Amino acid sequence: MKQPIKQNGFISEPNNLHSSTSLPKDSPSLGMEDALVSYLFGKKRATDIAHMVWKGIVQKGDTVIDATCGNGFDTLAMLNLVSDDSHKGYVYALDIQKDALDKTSLLLEESLDSNEKQLVKLFNICHSKMEEVVPTNAAVRLVAFNLGYLPGGDKEIITRSETTLLALEAAKRIIIPGGLISIVVYVGHPGGREELETVETFAARMSVEDWICCKLGMLNRPNSPIPIFLFRR
Questions:
Q1: Which residue among 7, 19, 138, 187 is buried most deeply as judged by most CB within 10 Å?
Q2: In a domain? residue 152
């Protein structure tokens, strides 16, 4: 039986399958450690960490879903990950608020050329209905959620546990092996904690054989956004 290894005062378990020494020098996972450390010391936001994780998962030409596009910054980040000269990558951006779609559309208009804009499909629908707009044969590599309310918008309009659970179940059905469900949960508003509990319960019940699920959080900042990642093996 292999014994735990002590390095720099920390205990680590040996793992032949995921040894860092097996990563190629050009691996997109390299550099994520720095981003994580920056988050732990308050220099990176939860969304910054999510974007760094996406870079280690998403490939050019992929289909990805921004399930709550908000002001469009995640949508734009996703497009930069999937677009290339082949023009095969697509971003499906959803939001139940038309105001969010308008803000996203304006950001894309200012940031993209005409060819790139064609790779983004905007839909004014609930995230729970993503399967109605994404092609059934699409190989979806990433589904991303920002749960809460629209920044700068009406704080009375928030994502709800009931529809978020339906959306997570839909994402689980369509995500391909090697894909990721990325969730940033904002908890500093009424209903935020309940929604977090819904997400945690959903993740905790996922198959250990098929999924790796993790959560980051600040213990002394209870209202800080919480990044959650569900990786399909």
A1: 187
A2: yes
- β-pairing verdict for 211-215 and 175-185: unpaired
Q: Which of 32, 49, 59 is nearest to 229 (CA)?
A: 49
Pairing of strands 226-232, 175-185: antiparallel
Going edge to edge, which strands form the sheet with 63-66? 120-123, 90-94, 63-66, 140-147, 175-185, 226-232, 211-215
Q: Which domain holds residue 140?
A: 51-232
Q: Is 151 left (phi over 0), alpha (psi -120 to 50) or beta?
A: beta
CA 201 to chain centre: 18
CATH number of the domain where residue 198 is located: 3.40.50.150
Q: Encode pLDDT of 12-62 as tens digits.
A: 333 333 333 344 444 445 556 777 788 888 888 999 999 999 999 999 999
**Structure token digits, residue 16:** 């032949």
Residue 188 lies in a domain: yes
- Number of domains comprising the chain: 1
